[in-house]
């Protein structure tokens, strides 16, 4: 698939999504359209896999007679294989194309036979039920719970709801995801194109979701920066972790920077977003055994407490509140620091949590508001411990304002390593003035990203852009990490020649006198009083 075909696919999917736009808000129709795309993906994968098993019998999966004895034997055998290989199962009659045809009537004018809502809701439930008692059960549990096909938001009557859903399915059915090319190895990048199209839709929904967007999506340009930072010097990763994983996009972005990621781990508090993350993983071809996404509050109820990870990335909610319960002073994640992050600002609680999970050979990068760089009290105490006692902080990178959805505040990235290659200094980068202005927000261009990454990897100093600060300098600044303290961006104003300005003013005065004379002469000719 070419780049043009990819863009065409993205536009086709967005146009179909807009079929629902007039019915509900962006959050709601996002869940439906992404769910339907995911269902189509699962069904096509199921059909391709089943056909490969049936190839020796010279029959197609759709041709199996489900109610016949022979058909049931085939289905049971395929189900067992499918649950092991794919992690789920769909019967021939439950395939996306079959349901779409029934909804479209197969040319029939019988409205009753075209009614698919009940069957479709049952099929989505059956996908989950097919995994019960298997290894993939947790990965498919309640995956479609946000798709209530009986919601009046889709239409006031069952018939109206059926009509809009049938229309969406019909449009989607006409799009070839070309998954067979992936299965046969003819187009190894095809899955990435479909995954990218899915990511494109998530990004489109995020751009219209205002402040809520930050709950499930990190702008792609920032994701690329984070991913490149933590994969520096690596071609393979045993594990990558995001404690506030949203839709999972950041985890998947890290995978694009290396040849292989063995396992993906994440945690997400919002149930709807958690469902989206699992769908995103599966749709990107990540096998159910290779990802472990949990739904819970990361700080209060961590779900991967016994694990360490080679790469950690996060864009946590800025200055979120948390309990800061005194009991956490005996929690291994926080106990060594002597102080907890304040209840009103959990920024450094996330840092501490991530440090705890970071492997000795690993790297982590976290997005924070600028206040985390210089606020005092407990946060200053934690910064001091991380720098003076542990020497984990590797770099501080200032980003432009207005690059995140729903907020215009300037942000920064902190990079940490437990075994630093350059333990004598910390790199400061001020990338805040390098961006492109878009309609609603600023964008990091490819050259802006390359400049950040090359500066980080080569640890180069550049006037008004980057600086290697010694640990002593930072200690002398009381562990205040505010970037202008280290990167001098002061612009010297041009010197002004007062004598030259005085001469110019005199010349203007002379010109005004001559102009007044001309105006006075005109006024005399017109027999009117001059205006001065």
- CATH domain fold name of the largest domain: Rossmann fold
> Which superfamily, in CATH terms, is the homologous superfamily of the largest domain?
Vaccinia Virus protein VP39
- Which CATH C-level class of the largest domain is it? Alpha Beta
CATH hierarchy: architecture of the largest domain: 3-Layer(aba) Sandwich
Strands, count:
11
Tally the helices: what do you get?
Answer: 18
Write the H/E string, N to C: HHHHHHHHHHEHEHEEHEHHEEEEEHEHH
pLDDT < 50 runs, ≥5 residues = 184-191
Terminus-to-terminus distance: 76 Å
Give the helix/strand class: alpha/beta
Radius of gyration: 30 Å
Keywords:
532 residues; 9-stranded mixed β-sheet; Ferritin; Rossmann fold; single chain; 44% helix
Structure description:
Strands 3-2-1-4-5-7-6-8-11 form a 9-stranded mixed beta sheet. It is an alpha/beta fold. The protein folds into 3 domains: 3-205, Ferritin, CATH 1.20.1260; 224-485, Rossmann fold (3-Layer(aba) Sandwich), CATH 3.40.50; 496-532, no CATH class. The protein is built from 18 helices and 11 strands. The longest helix has 29 residues, at 26-54. It has helices spanning 3-17, 26-54, 69-85, 96-103, 117-129, 137-140, 158-173, 179-184, 190-207, 220-230, 249-256, 271-283, 347-357, 371-374, 377-389, 446-458, 471-476, 498-525, and strands spanning 236-242, 260-268, 291-295, 309-314, 358-369, 393-398, 411-417, 425-430, 436-437, 442-443, 466-470.
């Amino acid at each position: 698939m070419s780049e043009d075909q990819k863009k065409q696919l993205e536009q086709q999917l967005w146009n179909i999504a807009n079929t629902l736009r007039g019915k509900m808000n962006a959050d709601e129709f996002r869940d439906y359209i992404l769910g339907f795309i995911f269902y189509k993906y699962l069904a096509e994968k199921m059909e391709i896999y089943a056909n490969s098993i049936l190839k020796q019998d010279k029959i197609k999966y759709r041709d199996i007679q489900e109610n016949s004895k022979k058909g049931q034997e085939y289905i049971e055998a395929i189900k067992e294989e499918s649950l092991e290989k794919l992690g789920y199962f769909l019967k021939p009659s439950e395939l996306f194309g079959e349901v779409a045809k029934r909804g479209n009537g197969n040319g029939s004018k019988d409205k009753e036979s075209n009614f698919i809502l009940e069957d479709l809701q049952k099929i989505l439930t059956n996908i989950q039920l097919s995994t019960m008692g298997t290894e993939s059960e947790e990965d498919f549990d309640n995956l479609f719970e946000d798709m209530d096909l009986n919601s009046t938001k889709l239409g006031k009557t069952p018939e109206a709801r059926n009509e809009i859903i049938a229309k969406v399915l019909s449009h989607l059915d006409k799009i070839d995801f070309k998954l067979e090319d992936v299965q046969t190895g003819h187009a190894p990048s095809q899955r990435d194109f479909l995954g990218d199209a899915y990511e494109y839709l998530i990004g489109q929904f995020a751009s219209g979701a205002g402040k809520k967007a930050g709950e499930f999506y990190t702008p792609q340009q920032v994701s690329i920066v984070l991913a490149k930072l933590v994969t520096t010097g690596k071609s393979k990763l045993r594990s990558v972790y995001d404690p506030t994983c949203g839709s999972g996009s950041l985890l998947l972005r890290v995978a694009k920077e290396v040849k292989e990621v063995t396992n993906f781990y994440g945690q997400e508090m919002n149930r709807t977003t958690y469902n989206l993350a699992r769908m995103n993983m599966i749709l990107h071809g990540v096998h159910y055994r290779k990802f472990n996404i949990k739904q819970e509050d990361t700080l209060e109820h961590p779900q991967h407490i016994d694990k360490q990870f080679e790469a950690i990335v996060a864009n946590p909610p800025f200055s979120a509140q948390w309990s800061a319960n005194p009991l956490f002073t005996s929690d291994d994640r926080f106990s060594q620091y002597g102080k907890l992050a304040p209840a009103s600002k959990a920024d450094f609680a996330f840092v501490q949590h991530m440090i705890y999970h970071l492997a000795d050979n690993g790297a982590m990068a976290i997005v924070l508001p600028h206040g985390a760089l210089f606020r005092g009290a407990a946060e200053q105490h934690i910064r001091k411990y991380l720098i003076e006692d542990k020497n984990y902080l590797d770099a501080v990178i200032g980003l432009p304002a207005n690059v995140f959805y729903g907020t215009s505040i300037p942000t920064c990235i902190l990079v940490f390593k437990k075994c630093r290659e350059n333990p004598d200094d910390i790199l400061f980068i001020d990338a805040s003035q390098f961006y492109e202005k878009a309609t609603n927000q600023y964008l990091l261009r490819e050259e802006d990203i390359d400049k950040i990454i090359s500066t980080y990897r080569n640890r180069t100093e550049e006037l008004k852009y980057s600086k290697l600060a010694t640990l002593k300098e930072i200690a002398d600044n009381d562990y205040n990490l505010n970037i202008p303290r280290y990167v001098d961006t002061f612009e010297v104003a041009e010197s002004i020649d007062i004598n030259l300005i005085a001469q110019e003013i005199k010349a203007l005065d002379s010109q005004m006198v001559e102009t007044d004379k001309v105006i006075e002469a005109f006024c005399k000719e017109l027999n009117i009083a001059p205006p001065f």
